[in-house]
Design goal:
By secondary structure, the protein is of the alpha+beta class. It has 16 helices and 13 strands. The strands form 2 sheets. Strands 2, 3, 4, 5, 6, 7, 8, 9, 10 and 11 form a 10-stranded mixed β-sheet that branches.
Length: 450
């Protein structure tokens, strides 16, 4: 009897499939992003920024191909072969209203584009951010910098063996990133050889970032990890009235300073932040420095792993770090707290890797990989602007995979045409509230150009 019941249930669940409709799509909500792109004039901005023109009888323009790659990145189609799924989506085709290029056309274009297109795309990114700034109130910004290792699994041009904590001995690229703290706009990214140090050409990178900032964004502070520790950087910031908070390398001179501080508790009292961390500070020059600078010393309390019996209940040892800064109006614990906010850029790099596949460099040509990376940067900033200006407050800090799950990639049916066009969804009260909010914000959104 049990066998008969299980067989009947299996037959009931093992239903036939019919493939008789082509208007159900998981990309239907892209219509709202495309509406936003139209409102900000993104396609015209793209066509104007990239100077390379294909042959006059080409089926697709340079701008339309790059636009498709950007759309694919926003929607999570990570590989060129995956882009074919989007290309064959009839709903996406209807939203775009133009012929969609094949993945082969996309790869060929990236290989064909000249070297100067990289700088043109960086300029496009900054013009996009400038448009965003024109539609906001002026603000004071802080920039977090970091770099990340991107392993390759082929013989990509420009990849070399360097520091790689996860895949030791594998060739890699290194990507340097500048991101605004809090609002998370991506200002610039580079694709470099994997053996480059974090500080490689960093001062030039910083100057380019500062020079390209929108006028309504005023740079107040930069935050960096110890890989960027360099007196030339500090001198530049001090000459240009830029605050910096930088993790220091624990040179022997700094270790000696820590030892000095620990033996003079009457002069250097530790400010206990919690049961683990304490901070104090000292002003001193390192050897070969031209001047003394302020160091915040961080002491981390670590429980010893000794298994021997002790007369005391607690046995501890300490681990030390240091932060160098030119900020005078923050006490040591506030400097420590401010530096810890830099950790958000590491979380955002993870978002860039898992959501926009920044670590995937599958093309053999280095220039083509860099172009693809820069298009992903533009895609990221487009969705970030859409998210912060159009979507409900609860999604302002959401990562892209969350947005795709609750909004961008919810399946629906695009029906009707013209003014009667609408989307049909399964009953979903949360999505209904989001789309009502998005519709209202898009209707009220007006681009300011001055």
């Amino acid at each position: 009897n049990l066998t008969m019941i299980l067989t009947q249930n299996s037959k009931k669940l093992n239903t036939k499939a019919k493939f008789c409709t082509n208007n159900i799509s998981s990309n239907v909500n892209f219509t709202f992003i495309e509406c936003f792109k139209n409102k900000i004039g993104f396609k015209a901005l793209l066509e104007k920024s990239v100077s390379y023109n294909k042959h006059h009888n080409a089926k697709h323009t340079t701008g339309s191909i790059l636009d498709f790659i950007i759309d694919s990145s926003i929607l999570g189609f990570s590989r060129f072969s995956h882009m074919e799924d989007l290309r064959n989506d009839s709903t996406y085709q209807e939203i775009k209203g133009v012929p969609i290029p094949s993945e082969t056309t996309c790869r060929t274009l990236l290989t064909t584009l000249p070297e100067n297109t990289c700088e043109e795309l960086r300029t496009l990114n900054m013009e996009l951010l400038n448009l965003q700034a024109l539609n906001e109130e002026p603000r004071e910004i802080m920039i977090d910098f970091d770099d990340t290792v991107c392993t390759v699994f082929g013989s990509q041009e420009g990849s070399v063996v360097g520091y790689n904590p996860r895949y030791k001995g594998r060739p890699s690229f290194k990507e340097k990133i500048a991101m605004i703290s809090g609002t998370n706009e991506l200002l610039n990214v580079t694709l470099e050889e994997g053996n480059h140090h974090s500080n490689h050409n960093f001062l030039d990178f910083l100057k380019n970032v500062i020079a390209s900032l929108p006028k309504k964004w005023v740079l107040k502070r930069i935050r960096l990890d110890k890989g960027f520790f360099d007196e030339k950087l500090f001198n530049f910031c001090e000459e240009n009235c830029i605050e910096y908070v930088v993790k220091a390398k624990m040179y022997n001179s700094l270790k000696s300073a820590v030892n000095y501080v620990e033996h003079l508790p009457q002069y250097y009292a530790w400010d206990e932040i919690n049961s683990i961390y304490s901070v104090t500070e000292i002003v001193m020059p390192l050897p070969k420095w031209e001047k003394a600078r302020r160091f915040v010393i961080i002491r981390k309390r670590i429980k010893t792993s000794s298994t021997q019996l002790s007369l005391y209940d607690d046995e501890f040892q300490y681990n030390y770090q240091a932060i160098v800064t030119n900020i005078d109006d923050l006490v040591a614990r506030e400097v420590f707290s401010d530096y810890n906010k830099r950790c958000n850029v590491e979380n955002k790099i993870d978002d860039l890797k898992t959501g926009f596949y920044f670590d995937q460099n599958s093309l053999l040509n280095k220039k083509a990989n860099e172009l693809f990376l820069l298009l992903k940067m533009i895609a990221y900033n487009l969705q970030n602007w859409f998210k912060t200006s159009i979507m409900p407050e609860e999604f302002k800090q959401s990562e892209i995979n969350t947005l795709r799950r609750v909004f961008f990639k919810v399946p629906g049916n695009l029906s009707g045409s013209g003014r009667y066009r609408h989307i049909k969804f399964a009953i979903n009260k949360r999505l209904e509230k989001i789309i009502c909010f998005v519709n209202k914000r898009l209707n009220n959104f007006t681009l300011q150009l001055e």
